[in-house]
Inverse folding.
């Protein structure tokens, strides 16, 4: 089976001073870098929907940014279809798209104008892009006048749908979805989730889905990893990570030592990774 | 061939984006145009004002035209810096910087498209400023050699773009102060380039710095063309420094921008801010 995403011993830390490398050594104040990813290793097979679940600040977005070529790793390896994210970013960018938790647009421009701009960057002429934009947005429940109104006049949920459409527009072979349904109402969430499945099935796309929505992970993902404080603490199918009678959320608490979304005292309270069936001290 | 077509389309995307943004933000654009016109008028009135204060007769009309040329070229340069210098700051403000940088288009396409729009828009805007200001003064433009003026501004614009691309990297490096640093860079150009006075009045060291600014040569060429009707041959000595500055500054600007981008990718500074 082809490996779509290969992450091996990946590390990333951020310095509070904002300085890196020699510059930090020469002019930086003595600050301690904050580790965002610690020796993360995972493999995503082609055509798979792979979920990464973790609380806020666990490192999900950092991982998504590295795979999307928006951040350079400090150590380790990250490859997309065999291309290194740092050295072959141009090749990767041609086959990848991403939805981030912030639906970011040129706010005064309409969804159509924003998406046509995006399409041109991906070498799609408007004559091809516009019908596809209309089709995808209609599929997600947006059509008619809102297509030509400034994005700033749309609700947060509608903007997020447009962001999803922007990512799907370019028919990427790898989709990095960083909490794509955050802020959506339940019906919209189901629309987007159904669309993700449909795209995977019909376009042979691989999906790397970052989420803290356990239901979403259980519903969509073939396999998943639990990321906590920058470390992968468990990987497997959603069914295999949960012990009999346990929900995924229970499994998350067992594996990380805290509830999803509870980031207080995580570092001091978090015990070593525990597998299914293992008991925590 | 496919790669060229791809980059051409990507470049055009930035032209179209800027044009659409201009239409949507037309109110603001009108405000800034009025601001530029008022600025130009204010500066131009220094000439008759100076005559009143000094109480001496001097060539007021020539000084008015001298200052008007300065304000019009300055309005042009300012607009180029606004469009190119703030291209990163704008995308960061909108939150689109990550989606734009993640696209497969080369950064050169972004710079080329934004620059093409900037030059065209700045040119039209500068003409509007000149047109309105000329209504307030009895400007003698009959002897002006517009072909020379056009040649000088065209060659000089390449250097302007290089500087603008260079300072566009600042918001990539300095999240909170990058935009202000772009404005400071522009203010420094204003000081040393002889926008409102000949650079010979500056201290020697500042005059030497001014000789490194493309705006200095553009202003000298424009004034020679409009005030004295100089032909291209008459101002031929201005072209070598303009070409050398352009040949150095534009590639340097692209290198600085690329380096800043790599630094931003390492330090995580592409992330949305504000």
């Amino acid at each position: 089976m082809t490996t779509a995403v290969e992450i091996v011993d990946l590390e990333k830390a951020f310095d509070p001073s904002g300085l890196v490398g020699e510059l930090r050594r020469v002019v930086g104040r003595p600050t301690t870098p904050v580790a965002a990813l610690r020796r993360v290793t995972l493999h995503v097979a082609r055509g798979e929907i792979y979920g990464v679940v973790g609380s806020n600040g666990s490192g999900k977005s950092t991982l998504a940014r590295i795979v999307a070529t928006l951040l350079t790793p400090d150590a380790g390896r990250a490859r997309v279809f065999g291309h290194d994210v740092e050295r072959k970013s141009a090749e990767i960018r041609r086959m990848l798209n991403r939805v981030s938790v912030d639906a970011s647009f040129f706010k005064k421009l309409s969804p159509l104008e924003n998406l046509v701009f995006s399409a041109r960057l991906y070498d799609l002429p408007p004559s091809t892009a516009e019908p596809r934009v209309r089709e995808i947005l209609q599929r997600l429940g947006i059509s008619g006048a809102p297509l030509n109104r400034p994005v700033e006049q749309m609700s947060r949920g509608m903007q997020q749908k447009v962001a999803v459409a922007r990512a799907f527009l370019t028919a990427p072979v790898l989709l990095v979805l960083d909490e794509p349904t955050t802020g959506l109402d339940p019906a919209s969430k189901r629309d987007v989730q159904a669309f993700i499945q449909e795209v995977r099935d019909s376009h042979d796309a691989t999906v790397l889905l970052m989420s803290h929505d356990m239901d979403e992970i259980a519903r969509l993902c073939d396999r998943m990893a639990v990321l906590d404080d920058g470390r992968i603490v468990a990987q497997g199918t959603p069914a295999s990570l949960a012990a009999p009678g346990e929900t995924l959320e229970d499994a998350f608490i067992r594996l990380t030592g805290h509830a999803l979304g509870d980031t207080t005292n995580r570092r001091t309270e978090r015990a070593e990774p525990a597998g299914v069936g293992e008991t925590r001290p | 061939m496919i790669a060229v077509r791809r980059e051409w389309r990507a470049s055009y995307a930035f032209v179209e984006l800027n044009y659409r943004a201009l239409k949507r933000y037309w109110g603001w654009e009108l405000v800034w145009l009025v601001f530029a016109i008022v600025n130009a008028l204010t500066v131009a009135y220094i000439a008759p004002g100076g005559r009143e204060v000094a109480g001496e007769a001097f060539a007021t009309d020539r000084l008015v035209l001298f200052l008007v040329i300065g304000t019009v070229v300055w309005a042009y340069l300012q607009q180029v810096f606004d469009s190119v210098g703030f291209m990163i700051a704008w995308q960061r403000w909108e939150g689109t910087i990550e989606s734009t940088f993640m696209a497969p288009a080369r950064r050169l396409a972004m710079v080329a498209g934004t620059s093409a729009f900037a030059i065209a828009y700045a040119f039209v805007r500068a003409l509007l400023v000149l047109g309105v200001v000329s209504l307030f003064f009895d400007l003698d433009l009959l002897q002006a050699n517009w072909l020379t003026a056009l040649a000088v501004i065209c060659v000089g614009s390449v250097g302007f773009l290089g500087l603008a691309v260079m300072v566009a990297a600042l918001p990539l490096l300095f999240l909170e102060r990058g935009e202000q640093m772009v404005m400071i860079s522009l203010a420094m150009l204003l000081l040393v380039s002889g926008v409102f006075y000949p650079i010979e009045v500056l201290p020697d060291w500042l005059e030497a710095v001014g000789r490194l600014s493309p705006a200095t040569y553009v202003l000298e060429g424009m004034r020679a063309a409009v005030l004295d009707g100089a032909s291209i041959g008459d101002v031929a000595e201005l072209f070598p420094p303009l070409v050398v500055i352009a040949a150095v500054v534009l590639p340097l600007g692209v290198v600085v921008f690329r380096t800043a981008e790599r630094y931003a990718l390492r330090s995580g500074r592409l992330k949305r801010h504000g």
In short: The two ends of chain A are 39 Å apart (CA to CA).
